[in-house]
Amino acid sequence: MEKNNIQIMAKILVDNWHNTDKVYKELEKLSKKDWTEESLENKGDAANQLLKRIEDSNMGKGYFAQLLSENIVDNDTLKIPEYIENAIVWACGGTIVE
Question: Is this structure's pTM higher than 0.85?
Fold first, then answer.
């Protein structure tokens, strides 16, 4: 729910959704909205909606994770929560910079 991550994740789903039904339009709406200043409650609702759609899709969570990781590598636009970033740095033996 960091920064504008919901928009980025919804865009990945839109780009890979298998049809143009009502779900596609719902995802497209999420992908066009700027979520940066939205409340945590609204972001939480949207995140739950995205998770449900990922589970409902033909791609599944594993394939979605691969698409998301490609976005992270290619675009560097996804904001990783600081606690996760620190955990990865620590697990890799790095020094956490504060």
Answer: no
In this structure, how many other beta carbons lie within 10 angstroms of the beta carbon of residue 53? 20
Alpha helices in 1-98 (DSSP H): 5-16, 22-32, 40-56, 60-75, 82-91
Q: Contact at 8 Å (CB) between 11 and 77?
A: no
| pLDDT tens string 22-74 | 888 889 999 999 999 999 999 999 999 998 888 877 778 888 888 888 887 77
Measure the CA angle with vertex 48, ends 1 and 71; round to 5°. Answer: 50
**In contact, 57 and 12? CB cutoff 8 Å:** no
Closest CA to 41 of 1, 81, 82: 1
What local confidence, expressed as pLDDT, does residue 32 receive?
A: 94
Q: Pull the structure tokens for residue 27.
A: 């995802």
Q: In terms of Cα–Cα distance, which of 74, 96, 67 is closest to 84? A: 96
